[in-house]
Predict the structure.
Amino acid sequence: MQKKEMERVHKCPICGNSKRKKIYNSNISDFSSDDFNITDSQYGKTWDFYKCSNCGFYYSDPTPSAELLVKIYSAVEDPDYEMEKRGREDNFKRIIKRILKIKPEKGKILDVGAATGIFMGLAKENGFMVEGIEPSKWAVDFAKKEHNIDIHRTDLFSFETDKKYDIITFLDLIEHLKNPLEGLNKANSLLKNDGILVIVTPNIESLLPKIMKNRWWHFRPPHINFFTNRSIKYILDKTGFEILSIKPYHWRFSLYYIVSRFSTGKKICDKIKPLKSLLKFIKIKLYLFDSMEIYAKKRDN
Ligand SMILES: [Zn+2]
């Protein structure tokens, strides 16, 4: 794929203001669907990013077109993602506990960008009714086989249903959307009146990106926009949500996953198998404070 398949974005996709400041310069020349894997380790690869002077939203310009994104995500195959199943399950168990605190009756969940269905499988085990949306054929086939769940092979914008959901989850999703405003409006329309939305997304104005600059691990080709505490509040208010809580999100990974994100680390582990097994066994919780976990309720109106 070439950069010419990109589209220009002349104004903020959230508030429509055209005043902006350039924050990061792109260092991506060419990309393929492999660059869009969840476990992709090409940290520090970033698009041209602008910060909206009005609402503080960070967006890429130029950016992959919506059609190109669907094409890319449909083709994603990422076997490494399942490798970290246990670490991811720990992250997701915490989210399920928090959902139950807000909504103790186990309702119907729609997981958007469900990947291989790890969250859905866990929610199902916990007694929820689950449905998911995922464009990748590979991930959908895997999820169906592994978890026996109802997962639709499509993207959020093409998804059509008459059903309404109690809970919608956007776990590491919104930073991948070309139009997050449309995405949240769609989520609002799919929720029941007392429905809740859960979002996990990087916070670009946290400490780590300030220290690491272009080397921040969330700078990767699939992340085409970024939120801050202020802009996430703004967009949720604009799309009819009332925020219940915003917490820092802590990742739990095996030491192997962390080490293998660096190509030298991966090479060493692949050569020394016992080391790989040992590192896979050691789980580390990373208190990076660079992602947000947001719970919001559909506003009555
Ligand atoms: Zn804006």
Observations:
- The longest strand covers residues 191-202.
- The pocket of zinc ion is lined by residues 12, 14-15, 17, 52, 54-55, 57 (CB under 6 Å).
